[in-house]
Write a structure and sequence with these properties.
The protein is mainly β and about 775 residues long. About 5% of the residues lie in helices and about 55% in strands. The chain has five helices and 46 strands. It has a 22-stranded antiparallel β-barrel. A five-stranded mixed sheet has the order 3-2-5-6-8, with no helix packed on it.
């Protein structure tokens, strides 16, 4: 009884625990550390001051757990304030801070970053972009700690798919998204991904290893290429340089264990490592429907980064991410809750992805630095499908194995000439090696080879960036991007421009325009076709698909912590692959599924256009609560080789999102947080099923002449999350329960023809289920 009394006294008395905030202050354009920056933080009625050291590093110790506002002041630089920074007892907080130099000597100007969503990590981004903080990413209900799911709360982005996390932006195919990590372009960072796609059911990215990252949806700067719809520029954080820290977590995403710390006490070299193993089998065992029918997905992954700063040789780092996944579908009956496969099918799907890289940043002087990143990445997806018939053995009728190994280099030199002018020049080189195999059983019991190709090619990109600040209010971001595919000599030169005018502290206008291009799916170039008795690669000469993008934006800070933002945009797409004969097919509709593309005889004659308006109203996180409302109204059209304009499959016409949350402090060391999120979006479009023809042929037949004329019912989903946080001495516990699809709304996933029932059947998305997570940090 005495022990129990002491435990309750420890948990609920007013005793307060403390922690440390540390970070590095850099010049925003040159990235050089700034010594002597005055850092101030209010703790109760007391003001704590400290200065950054010669390496730009500051450290504030013994802060009681809670939320704080910090300010950073340095001569002839804009003062930066960081508000509502959360401090917990179980982990030291690392803050990266960048200051922008004044063009002329002026009275003190203050920038409040927590409220100023106009700022990006990449200062060359002008429109349609947002920096996602890790706290923000872990906050939203229904996001499953998945960066891609988090992005679906933002304007112009449509998810509406419980089975996958594909990022569909402004009606574009999700394959147009570029994933970049630590300065290198990477393959899809998702489990169960297939070559040529950018999404998947489970994200490999671990929030515990990530730092704040930029997400942009149109007219991006010239340092990004080979993409048409958006860019996710991911940053991995460094480990703690002062002490060793641990993390343990169990939840929907898996069992996790992480550790970080210095290699040697008193030195600045550090490491961070996180390992995860799937818990979905356990969730399935207790009877919760995962939306995968009788099948259970298995996966595991690891993420790490080693940071090695030196005094004279620059800063070195080694980073990596890797994962393996597999799932078997054993059912031979129709299951309306199975999102992936139909009846009388048994399949085995396996995939693996690995990325390892090395980077080096070197300062020639205080205004010039170079950064070199070298990486190797590899992906492999394998699929085996058997046909199951009553009272007979399973018959293998399809098998595929697609491998890609990519050797990458990104080198850039950045020069800040003065407060007005900054320039960057860079080159990106990728050597891509393929091993593609695909076969289907024919009517004679043998297998027809759809492709069997092993070869390699190179994609070379180069770019020049130039930023000119005319005044404190007017900034020009311009550049040229160029890329060449050596496989067939495809080439594209792409001018980009962005202009931002900060009328005053409340009103800002922005404009972005540019040409963007993307190579086709790797598998598309090597589809084999028999012409006049000879096997040819009929898609090998495909050119890049191109898009001319234009955005006009307006930002209004109605109050210090209340923002309204709107953007209108128009995108014209051309040189999209379509079939050589007259048809409704276009590759603009591909890329959000689990399989590779197998079309042959494609030519670059297709076009498309996306246009719309977006509105964001955001109450920043202050006074214990936040509200984010985003809306998008848009059209997404395309033309195949038949010249008829149609809606794309991604033309849902509208998306509305609402996210809100409230945080309640329970004494000095615990809190309770409530987060809610709702999505209402137009239904996806499908090619209608010709029921009569399907019955006659005994298999599903779709009416291609009416491509995407049928729109499914709207998507609606409400999520509600409750989080409890408890801070003890040097330890923090987080417990959350995320009630996903709270209303158990039946969202239609797709329609399919059932030969057994001889009718069209509906497949629905995931119903209500609770996602429970427990995390401990110490």
């Amino acid at each position: 009884m005495m022990k129990l009394t002491l435990l309750f006294a420890l948990l609920f008395t007013g005793f307060s625990f403390s922690q440390t905030i540390q970070g590095t202050v850099l010049d925003k354009q040159s990235k050089f550390p700034i010594p002597g920056v005055l850092v101030k933080v209010m703790v109760g009625d007391s003001l704590i001051r400290t200065l950054s050291n010669d390496d730009g590093v500051f450290r504030i110790e013994n802060l009681p757990v809670g939320r704080y506002s910090l300010s950073f002041t340095f001569t002839n630089y804009k003062t930066v304030s960081l508000s509502n920074i959360s401090v917990i007892s179980g982990k030291e907080l690392e803050l990266p801070v960048e200051l922008e130099e004044n063009i002329t000597e002026v009275d003190e100007v203050e920038i409040t970053y927590n409220a100023d969503k106009r700022k990006n990590l990449n200062e060359m981004l002008t429109v349609s972009s947002r920096t996602i903080s890790i706290e923000e990413a872990g906050r939203y209900a229904g996001s499953r700690q998945d960066f891609a799911k988090v992005a679906q709360n933002y304007p112009g982005v449509s998810g509406a798919n419980d089975a996958r996390n594909d990022i569909i932006i402004r009606g574009n195919s999700p394959t147009g998204v570029l994933w970049r990590m630590e300065g290198i372009d990477i393959p899809s960072p998702n489990h169960f991904s297939s070559l040529g796609t950018t999404g998947g059911p489970v994200c490999m990215l671990n929030l515990n290893n990530l730092s704040n990252s930029d997400f942009t949806t149109s007219a991006w700067s010239a340092d990004y290429g080979n993409a048409l719809s958006g860019v996710f520029d991911l940053q991995l954080r460094n480990g703690n340089t002062k002490k060793r820290e641990y993390l343990g977590q169990i939840g929907f995403n898996g069992f996790e264990f992480g550790l970080e710390g210095p290699f040697k006490k008193g030195k600045n070299a550090s490491y961070i490592l996180n390992y995860r193993y799937s818990t979905l089998a356990l969730i399935k065992a207790i009877g919760v429907n995962l939306g995968t029918g009788a099948s259970v997905p298995y996966y595991q992954d690891v993420t790490f980064k080693v940071d090695l700063p030196t005094k004279k040789a620059g800063r070195f780092s080694i980073f990596g991410i890797g994962g393996i996944s597999s799932i078997k579908f054993e059912t031979d009956s129709t299951d309306e809750n199975n999102l992936y496969f139909g009846e009388n099918i048994r399949s085995d799907v396996r995939s693996r992805t690995g990325i390892i890289g090395f980077s080096h940043r070197y300062f020639f002087d205080q205004k010039t630095f170079s950064k070199l990143v070298i990486a190797v990445s590899g992906t492999r997806d394998q699929t085996e499908i058997d046909s199951i018939r009553p009272n007979s053995e399973a018959i293998r009728y399809y098998g595929s194995s697609n491998e890609q190994t990519k050797y990458s280099l990104n080198y850039k030199v950045n020069r800040k000439f003065n407060a007005r002018n900054t320039a960057t020049i860079g080159i990106i080189y990728d050597y891509i090696h393929f091993n593609l195999k695909d076969s289907v059983r024919n009517d004679f019991g043998g297998f027809d080879i759809a492709k069997d190709y092993r070869n390699g090619t190179s994609l070379i990109q180069s770019y020049i960036l130039y930023q000119h600040r005319f005044t404190e209010k007017l900034t020009l971001n311009s550049g040229i991007h160029s890329q060449t595919l050596l496989l067939n000599g495809s080439n594209s030169t792409e001018p980009r421009i962005g202009l931002k005018y900060q009328l005053n502290e409340k009103h800002a206008f922005s404009f972005g325009s540019g040409l963007h291009s993307q190579m086709q799916f790797v598998t598309s170039y090597f589809q084999e076709e028999i012409i006049n008795g000879a096997i040819v690669l009929s898609n090998k000469e495909l050119d890049f698909t191109k898009s001319f993008q234009n955005v006009l934006g307006y930002d209004w800070f109605m109050h210090k912590n209340l923002r309204l933002k709107t953007e209108v945009y128009y995108q014209y797409i051309y040189d999209a692959p379509v079939q050589a004969f007259s048809s409704s097919y276009s590759m603009l509709n591909a890329g959000d599924g689990f399989g590779s593309l197998n079309e042959t005889g494609l030519i670059n004659k297709g076009t498309g256009k996306n246009y719309g308006i977006e509105l964001t109203i955001e109450k920043m996180y202050t006074k214990g609560y936040y509200i984010l409302f985003t809306s998008s109204l848009f059209e997404s059209k395309y033309k195949g080789s038949d010249g008829i304009e149609r809606s794309t499959t991604f033309n849902t016409n509208y998306v509305f999102n609402l996210a809100a949350g409230n945080e309640l402090r329970l004494g000095k060391k615990s809190l309770l947080r409530f987060d809610a999120q709702a999505t209402f979006a137009g239904g996806r479009r499908e090619i209608p099923i010709d029921l009569e023809a399907s019955i006659t042929q005994g298999k599903e037949v779709r009416d291609e002449t009416r491509a995407y004329a049928v729109q499914n019912t709207p998507y609606f989903k409400v999520n509600f999350k409750i989080t409890y946080e408890l801070n003890l001495k040097k330890l923090t516990s987080h417990f959350s329960i995320d009630l996903q699809n709270l209303t158990n709304h039946k969202n239609l996933y797709t329609k399919a023809y059932s030969p057994k029932q001889m009718e069209i059947v509906n497949t629905y998305q995931t119903g209500f289920y609770p996602n429970i997570t427990y995390r401990i940090q110490f």
